[in-house]
Fold this sequence. Notes:
The chain is of the alpha/beta class. Helix content is about 35%, strand content about 25%. The model has no long low-confidence stretch (mean pLDDT about 95).
Amino acid sequence: MSQRPIRxxxxxxxxxxTRFLPATKSMPKEMLTVVDRPVIQYVxxxxxxxxIEHVVFVTGRNKxxxxxxxxxxxELEETLARRNKTDILRTVVAARPRPGETSFTRxxxxxxxxxxxxxxxxxxxxxxxxxxLPDVLxxxxxxxxxxMMDVYSEHGGNVIAVEEVPPERIDQYGxxxxxxxxxxxxxxxxxxEKPKREEAxxxxxxxxxxxxxxxIFDLLSRGSAGAGGEIQLTDSMRPLxxxxxFRALRFEGSTYDCGSKIGFLAANVAYAxxxxxxxxxxxxxxxxxxxxx
Length: 293
Ligand code: G1P
């Protein structure tokens, strides 16, 4: 079936990153490096690999360096070219978007994820879009958003990525209730943001990747504060669920929550071990460190 194409993605980057202070005092948390690339680069690349043509960053104060990161660094590229550093030059050029493929808009107050998404409404316009939360890195053979795009091409509507988490972590996430379907794709019949463990409708959490229809913006504009006193995206996806098809995909891949120190450190290890140029040496170093314990 032919669906309206998903051309644009929102990446919200307005969060303060207090969990990583003092590293994030003058540097956005999205610029923390996993091996040798900022976290935000992995998420941007996942969006591009899924066919996204334009990324809208919803930023805040002190996030200007993200805009610089995705701009051309003219002097740097000239110097690398002059010194024949072709490999690194190729990496730098491949990492940046082409002119006009990004927009930046500010979330002026920290009112929650729902509000951050709503801030991008004019730039997205009346078309379905993807949303990627940059705290979450998902490592697998095929990008998580690409897997969701396949589901979207077949079924249309709204699609969210879900995964199982142990009961003691359930209260940190949006949790879905599932209806028809079978693993890995179900219809979503309910969802709740950060429920108490005993009130969670399942152990499937929303992982931070979404394909949403533009009707969400109307619902968000009527949104009021929910869990944690913030305008929650989950609270506006619930009524959307009653208007349009809404599916949950249990994607293939490993998740690293780079909003937490343990997740961030684990991401560094996992991505380093996987690198052709570093993996072998790093494995030896890890073995040495672990045998010292
Ligand atoms: C947000 C969403 C939540 C989702 C989570 C994934 O929560 O509101 O539904 O499960 O991201 O990381 P936050 O991490 O911003 O509290």
